[in-house]
Each structure stands twice: as C-alpha cells, then as structure tokens.
Amino acid sequence: MNALKPAAPYKSGVVLLLIMVLLMVLISRNSQGVVRAFVAGETRWKTAGFLEEDTEHFQIKYMAVDGDYVENIGQTAEDAYVKVTQLFGYEPERKTTIIIYPDSASLARSFGWDKDEKAMGVYWAGTIRLLSPQQWINSNANWEEIFAGEGPVYHEFAHLMVDDITRGNYSRWFTEGIAQYVEKKITGFEFQDPMPNKYAGYYTFDRLEKNFNELDQQVAYRESLQIIEFMVDNYGEECLWMILKCLGEGNSMDYAINRSSGIEYRVFERDFLESVNQ
Hints:
CATH class of the largest domain: Alpha Beta
Number of strands: 5
Structural class: alpha/beta
C-alpha cells in the first residue's frame, strides 16, 4: 500500500493537467463564442434599465428619450438584414442586439473609451451599438432618410456577418473594407476620399494587418475599401465570400486569398499597389 501512495498524487495531477489542456483546446476552438457570451452577460447587466423593442431579427434596447426613433431604426435594421444577408448568402442563427445610446459619452463608457471618443456606430462581439440619431442629425432634416442613407446600420451589420462567417478569424482592414463595400453598394454612401490626388503613401498589407489602429484612420479605411474593390474588379465578388468561408475554416488570410483568387498574397499586394500608384 505504501508503494502506491506516491503514485496517487501524480496520477491525479496528470488527470488535472489533461482536463486543463482539454478546456484550453475547447476554448481556443470556440474563442468567439466565449467572448460573445461574456460580452452578452456584461451588456445585459449594463443595460438592465433600458427599454426593449423586438423586430423579427433584432432586439433593440434604448432609453426613453430615444423612444421616437426606435420604430424607424428597427425598419432600417430589417432592411439591412434582408439586403446584406442576400449579398453574403448567409443568415445569423439568432437575433442581433442593437443598443441605442443617447449621447457619445454613454456610448464611449460602454467600451471604456475616453469620454471624448466619437462614433456613430460600433460592432463588438455580436452586438451593434448606435449613437442616437438626435445627436448627429439636424432636427429640421428628414432624419429617417438621412439615417437610412448615411447611418451606420448597414456598415455595422456587415461587420457582424464577417465575424459570424469567419468565426472571428479576420483582419481589421478586411472587415472594414468589406463593411464599406457593402454600405456603398446598398446605400451609395462612402467616406470622403482623404487622398483626392495621387498619393504615394499607401500602407503595406503588413502595416494594415499589424498596426491598423496606429495608422491614419482615414487613409487606412480608404485603402481597405480600395483593396476590396480591386479584388472584386479583378476576381469577382464571389471571391470575397470564398475568402470569408476559407477564414471560417481557420485558414490564414494569405491562404484564403490564394485559394479564392488563384494568386499569391504578395503578388496580389504588388498588383494592388501598382494599380493605385499609376
């Protein structure tokens, strides 16, 4: 019996280690689901005092001060759902939560941003967060038309679609490029070109991939859209959806572009940079 005593802690330690490894593998395979579950729980807690309104595909949470905007926001969201899902050929499995914040400060607080940080809309971990239309649309204007045509709903819902299909395996420049492409195609809206003249300072793909947040955001966003449009013009729109599917299988962007277009990643980058610097 004494000879067996040292073996018991060792065996139990091995079992515990195996369990921990298994849990780590499961979490890594479903990291998107883990993050979304955590964010959803935190969001429910932080918006416990909000009112709620449901549409067919969305749950809208809002403060009483924005009650007059909810119906139109819901209609715009449903229009985005129909048009964007048709474009992607994919539908989310569950309703999407939209949270309307009455001012920029409350929207910033929801992310832990500086209170002076500005945004009309943000997608994060399965949830779309919007700044109230009353904060950025003139009260005398036809706000419903402006919100649908210039608001962030189509853009942010496109981000959700990219996140869903790729299971969180995507680059920031890629999702920003696709979101702008979808928005432009459906509503006609696009950000003002920060480079109206020929501009030699295009970022390399490596810089877009690794340092997107540190770059000039206007230039980085614009270049991201141009890359997507170059891809569609040369290899067809279907190439985008194939890349998303390939990323969803856990592959790298290099591999996904090569598999969907038949061209090497660095060759694609060279061809793009040559095209915009002509």
